[in-house]
């Protein structure tokens, strides 16, 4: 392993299929039900970051069926660097992309900074 590289880190320039993960796109505004409520993707986008494409989605969670009361929150989810974009479909007809997780803190901080400028009202940004 290279110095400064942690076990499990993924090189975004490595285009080998072993380093890629399948990401199933959830349709925008489709409610995904759970026991306490639902969440949905409000918007999906691709950022250009240092010559690489980064997939992200703006999501909202709504608790409306809980013993503790109702509430909700918005958050951003970052699956990672795009390798292929909507290149296939699953059995349900949802698009599938291939991504590589962003695991290093420095590129995560850079993506977080860009997303905070675009969505200043969102405080939760998770890297899948």
Task: Set down the secondary structure blueprint.
Blueprint: E1 21-24, E2 32-33, E3 37-49, E4 52-63, E5 71-89, E6 95-100, H1 105-118, E7 125-127
Parallel strand pairs: 5-7
Antiparallel strand pairs: 1-6, 2-3, 3-4, 4-5, 5-6
Overall description:
The protein has one helix at residues 105-118; strands at residues 21-24, 32-33, 37-49, 52-63, 71-89, 95-100, 125-127. With 128 residues, it is mainly beta. The protein has one domain.
Output the keywords:
single chain; 128 residues; mainly beta; 46% strand; disordered N terminus
Short account of what is shown:
The protein has 128 residues and is mostly beta strands. The protein contains 1 helix and 7 strands; from the N terminus they run E-E-E-E-E-E-H-E. It is 11% helix and 46% strand.
């Amino acid at each position: 392993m290279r110095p400064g590289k942690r076990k499990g880190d993924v090189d975004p320039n490595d285009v080998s299929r072993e380093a890629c993960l399948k990401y199933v796109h959830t349709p925008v505004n489709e409610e995904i039900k759970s026991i306490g409520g639902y969440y949905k993707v409000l918007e999906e986008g691709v950022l250009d970051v240092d010559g690489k494409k980064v997939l992200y989605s703006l999501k909202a969670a709504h608790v409306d069926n809980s013993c503790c009361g109702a509430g909700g929150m918005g958050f951003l989810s970052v699956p990672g660097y795009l390798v292929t974009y909507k290149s296939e479909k699953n059995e349900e007809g949802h698009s599938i992309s291939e991504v590589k997780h962003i695991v290093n803190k420095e590129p995560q901080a850079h993506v977080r900074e860009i997303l905070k400028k675009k969505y200043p009202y969102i405080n939760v940004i998770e890297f899948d």
